[in-house]
From TrEMBL:
<feature type="domain" description="NTP pyrophosphohydrolase MazG-like">
    <location>
        <begin position="27"/>
        <end position="100"/>
    </location>
</feature>
<dbReference type="Pfam" id="PF03819">
    <property type="entry name" value="MazG"/>
</dbReference>
<dbReference type="GO" id="GO:0047693">
    <property type="term" value="F:ATP diphosphatase activity"/>
</dbReference>
<dbReference type="GO" id="GO:0046052">
    <property type="term" value="P:UTP catabolic process"/>
</dbReference>
<dbReference type="InterPro" id="IPR048011">
    <property type="entry name" value="NTP-PPase_MazG-like_C"/>
</dbReference>
<feature type="domain" description="NTP pyrophosphohydrolase MazG-like">
    <location>
        <begin position="180"/>
        <end position="236"/>
    </location>
</feature>
<comment type="similarity">
    <text>Belongs to the nucleoside triphosphate pyrophosphohydrolase family.</text>
</comment>
<dbReference type="GO" id="GO:0046061">
    <property type="term" value="P:dATP catabolic process"/>
</dbReference>
<protein>
    <recommendedName>
        <fullName>Nucleoside triphosphate pyrophosphohydrolase</fullName>
        <ecNumber>3.6.1.8</ecNumber>
    </recommendedName>
</protein>
<dbReference type="InterPro" id="IPR011551">
    <property type="entry name" value="NTP_PyrPHydrolase_MazG"/>
</dbReference>
<dbReference type="GO" id="GO:0046081">
    <property type="term" value="P:dUTP catabolic process"/>
</dbReference>
<dbReference type="GO" id="GO:0046076">
    <property type="term" value="P:dTTP catabolic process"/>
</dbReference>
<dbReference type="GO" id="GO:0006950">
    <property type="term" value="P:response to stress"/>
</dbReference>
<dbReference type="InterPro" id="IPR004518">
    <property type="entry name" value="MazG-like_dom"/>
</dbReference>
<dbReference type="GO" id="GO:0006203">
    <property type="term" value="P:dGTP catabolic process"/>
</dbReference>
<dbReference type="InterPro" id="IPR048015">
    <property type="entry name" value="NTP-PPase_MazG-like_N"/>
</dbReference>
<keyword id="KW-0378">Hydrolase</keyword>
Amino acid sequence: MYQLDDLLHLMARLRDPQHGCPWDLKQSYASIVPYTLEEAYEVADAIERGDFDHLPGELGDLLFQVVYYSQLAQEEGRFDFARVVDGITSKLIRRHPHVFPDGDLYGAADAAKLEEAAVKQRWEELKAQERAEKAAAPEQLSLLDDVPTALPALSRAAKLQKRAAQVGFDWPEALPVVDKVREELDEVLEAMSENDAEAVAEEIGDLLFVVTNLARHLKVDPEAALRAANGKFERRFRFIEQSVREAGRSLDGCSLEELDALWGRRRSWRSKLPVAEHSSRMKSAKRLIRPARTASGLTRGFRAGAAAP
């Protein structure tokens, strides 16, 4: 079985100026970033689908991204993979003094027994200390300095809100956030009534930001929640497509009412059914598709953003 050193050797071979891969030789830090993001999402997707057969492969793809950046840096004399490993190991030892009280990875000192809340508080304190040490001008240090701008927008919003909450700039509970969601929605409607496209975009941004804040207060990961909603929408729409095909029809030949009936029928079913029961219900679904066309367009469920299984 291949080991980590073999992967590092492979990467060096791919980047060999004389005998390496032409494609790999042309890559840079910036050109690899899209692949890194894609591989990270594929790891998340495999985990959320419970696909543990393919998860090792996806994790390997993500690990290869780290190896790739390290090889580029080594070629430029900046750092190597060993420094990456040393850096993360040192940081985790430093941030877990309750596990490594003497700061030694293999030390024999007894670990301190702490509650989870105390561990989290200590973690944030240590991160704040590290930010202060990195700052060129500590008096200008911001809590938001190291929140990556490249994060997905919902994730970055949640992280910004979490940082602000550390100094008490936050709602005390979820219910006031619900009121704020309603307020922002009213502002979207007002901008719509004035036919102000720029204001609509701004107000929708504010609405998304506040909904993200509500998710944070309810301990819901907004990115994961939206991915789940996307998946439910996809399953329901694929069901509609399959039902229409099995009826010998096309989507653009179905009326609004027909599509809406299928959408509602799929919503009322469980996402996973025994094969025989699924087949029986698919036959029932075909009867919902009437031959006459009366309208076209998106269903009410689509417009409302309904995404039940």
